[in-house]
Amino acid sequence: MLTAEGLVRCAGDICLALAVLGCFYLLLASIVVRRFKALQPVKAARPVPVTVLVPLCGTEPGLDSRLRALRDQDYDAPVQIVCGIQNPTDPAIRVARSVAQERPGLSVDLHVERVIHGANLKVSNLVNMVRRARHDVFVLVDSDIEVGPDYLSRVVGELQKPEVDAVTCLHYGIARGGIWPRLAAMGANAHFLPNVAVAMTLGLAQPCFGATIAFSRDVLCRIGGFGAFKDQLWDDYAIGQSIRRMGREVSVPPFALGHVYSEMSARQLIDNQLRFARTIRSIDPVGFAGGVITHPFPIALLAVLLGAGERGVEVAIVALAGRLGLYWCVGQRWGVRLESPWLMPMRDVLAFALHVAAFFGASVVWRGRRYRVSRGMLLPNPE
Length: 383
What we know:
By secondary structure, the protein is an alpha/beta fold. It has 12 helices and 13 strands.
């Protein structure tokens, strides 16, 4: 019969084994990232009219420059930008109007409507604003995404491939501010982006991201319009799954877009990251549980606390070096500016803590409101 000391030692050995396995995962991820779709260039688009849908809610650092980047695309066909807002006192209205007035010859339309269609306020906004769309190719992009002047040409070019019916884009992190946005951006670059690359390479994921979703008006009608996703927390994933269930392909091109993080506090960082983790757990609980091996550094530290001794310390050092190496590979592959690598031990421990916390509870905070999540659905006012 095992004693308490024996159980602790056994737990330490299990943690050590998981950490070693995680080190091999980091090596695999580094190789995958370096080779990820490197030989698949995206052709420029045959110019067709496009409506860009940008749901807005409040101002964020750099919002005006991101809207200008969408407005000033190097694209030889009509482009309509629809900025949707639900609150008529939202300060984003002033920003959108200012960007529109700078170049009145370009189509930047502002749609303000209070009507709420479901628990997901972003989707409610889209239901309202899509009625303003004049063209039959839609590009949906989140307001915190930075794009280059060839963004539309590359996305529409991918959409015009014969086998492609929708396009989504990977995203990397850009920090705007102090330590909290830097930690958030590091999470995107050192965890999210390489994990997605590995999952796609191994055929374990079929992603769709709010960074960009492009499709035709016909495809949107066939999946029931935006209203079909009015209570989904992860609406972008649900849209992608609906398109794929029709036998259509959602393409993920090899380039990535910049996702700007501007968390103002530790509380906001934790709320955002925990919402992301609990949403993934709700959609894919088995895969999320298996994702524990992607955190070898904190698991090795836990093994040390459970008595693994020098072996645990050695594995922890290897795991941290592996994470930093993976971080460097992401920077090389997608041209990402690597924020504060000295924060990596803190970022890794935080990521593991949030992974564990995601198993305990089902509530999330989004835009200041608290919800309960069940199978990806938003249920307001939990207990």
